[in-house]
Amino acid sequence: MKLLSLMLAILTLLPCAAHADDPVTLRLIENAWLNDDILNAYTAKTGVQFERLDGHAMTEMANAFATRNDQIDLFTFTAYSGLYSVKEHDYYAPLEGSEILSARLNDLYPAVRDVLTDDGHMAGWVLNLSPMYMNANTRLLEENGLTEPTTFADMLDVCNALLEADALDSETSMFSTCSYTADSMMALFMSQYIMACGLEGGLVDFTRPEFLSVAERIRDTVPREEAYKDEAYSSAFDYPCAASSISADLMRPALQLIEGQSPAVEAYMGVATVNPYSARRDEAIAFLEFYASQTSAESYFYDASLTEPVKNDRQAKLLQDIAVRLRTLEAIEDPTAEQRDELEALRQDQANAEQYLWLITEEDIAFYRDFAQNLSIAEAAPVQYDESLRASAGLFLSGVYDSAAFAKACQDHINMIYQEHGIAVK
Predict the structure, then answer these.
(1) Which of 144, 328, 385, 407 makes the best surface tag, with the fewest CB within 10 Å?
(2) Would you say 204 and 264 are in contact if contact means Cβ atoms under 8 Å apart?
(3) Could you give the maximum distance between any two Cα atoms of the chain, in Å?
(4) Which CA distances in Å does 111 have to 96, 147, 152, 259, 333?
(5) What is the mean pLDDT of residues 157-174?
C-alpha cells in the first residue's frame, strides 16, 4: 500500500498529457495591423493560436518590462509611436539569433534595415511600410500655366501663383492634409528638414543659410490665415500623401527642401517585437520567421529583393474568360448583329483588362528603387518638430525673432536634446 501511494503521488506531479498536447497560444498587443491571412495560414500549419489583448503597446511594453511579465509574447505597433525608445531602453528580445530573420534582414531597403537594428541587435521585424509622396493636381496647374514643383520653394511659388490667379474656388483647397498658412507650412518644412538632415548623418543644423532662406520665404509670402474652407472636395496638392502601391505613374520624387541637400521620403512602418520575458519566446520568434517569409504586393515597399513584376490576378482571370468567349464568337461565320456588338464590347473589355493587368510593373520597381534610397522612417526620435521648435517658429513668424535669433533658439534646443541623449555634436 505504501508503494502504491508513493506511485500515485509521483503521478500527480507529472505533466498532464492533455496539457502537453494543448496548442500554443501566442498573446499579443496589436497596435499595428497584422495580416489575418498570414495568421490563419500559420495556425493551419502549426496549430499555434493567437489571442489579441487590449492595451497600448508602449504602455504595456513598459509595464511588462518592469514586472517581467511573461504572459505577453508579441507587441505590434507603428514605429512612430516609440520605436526609438524601445531600442533605447532594450524593450525587446534580440532576433539576430534567428538565421532566417538575419538573412531576410539583408533583403530589406537600407533605411528599413537601419531602423530595425540597435547597436548590432535586431530589435524587431517590419510588418508593413507606407511611404509618403506629393500628388499634384496637374489639371489645375496646367490651366494656370504652372508646372509641378520639384523643390519646397517652388511649391510655395506655385501656391502663391494660384492665390494670385484666384484659381481656387470654395470646393478646392490648397492642401488636402493641412491648411495653407505660415504656421502649417513652417511645421511641414521644419519636420521634413529634420528628416532630411538625418539622411546626411543625423545632425540638424538650423543655422544653414539655405534653411533660413526658405523659412524667410514662408514668413514673408505665406498667409497667416487659411483663405479657403477645409470642407473642400479637391485640392491643388496632396502632400504628404500615403502610397497604396508602388507606382511610377502616381508617385512623385520627394521635394528637395534646400539647395544641396538630398530630399527625405517620410515613411510610416508597422513593426513587431518580442517580449524578452515571454514564456513562449521561441514560439514568437518562429512566428515572425514565418511572417517574414510571406510576401505580397505591399512587401515591395520595404523588401529590396523583390524584383519580379506582379500581376493583378483578378484582371488575369478576366482576360482568360474574355479570351474564351472571343474564340467562340470569332469562330461564328455569320454572326448576328447582337453577336457583333458583343464581340466589339469584349475587345474593348480586353483592352481595358490588359491596361490594368499588372499591379507592379518593371518600370514601377525601377522607379521605387531610386525613390526608396531616401526613405526616412518615423520612429519618435528625440529630435523632431516639437512644441519648443513650434514656439520658436511662431515667434519668428510673428516678427519677435529675426532670422539669427530664430536659428539660435532652434539650434540651442536641438543641441540640448543631443546632449541629453549622448549624441556627439561636431
Answers:
(1) 328
(2) no
(3) 103
(4) 18, 31, 23, 23, 61
(5) 92
Convert the pLDDT of each residue in 250-263 to its tens digit.
Answer: 898 889 999 989 89
If you search the block for the grid coordinates 532652434, which residue do you land on? 410
Give first-to-last CA distance, the chain, whole Å: 82
**Judging by DSSP bridges, how do beta strands 358-360 and 310-311 pair with one another?**
antiparallel
pLDDT of residue 1: 42
Helix ranges (H only) for 294-381 are: 313-330, 337-355, 362-371
Q: How far apart are the C-alpha atoms of 390 and 395, rounded to whole Å? A: 9
Rounded Cα distance between 411 and 418, Å, is 10
Residue 229, number of CB atoms within 10 A of its CB: 9
Nearest to 234 by CA among 354, 349, 137, 327: 137
**Interatomic CA distance for residues 329 and 322, integer angstroms:** 11
Give CA–CA dist 412/195, Å, rounded.
18
pLDDT > 70: what percent of the chain? 93
Per-residue pLDDT tens digits for 253-307: 889 999 989 899 999 999 999 999 999 999 999 999 999 999 999 999 999 999 9
Cell of 228: 479657403
With 0-12 / 13-18 / 19 or more C-beta atoms within 10 angstroms meaning exposed / middle / buried, residue 13 is exposed
Query: From the CB of residue 395, how many other CB atoms can be counted at a distance below 10 Å?
Result: 14
- The number of C-alpha atoms within 13 Å of 39 and in the hemisphere containing its C-beta is 15
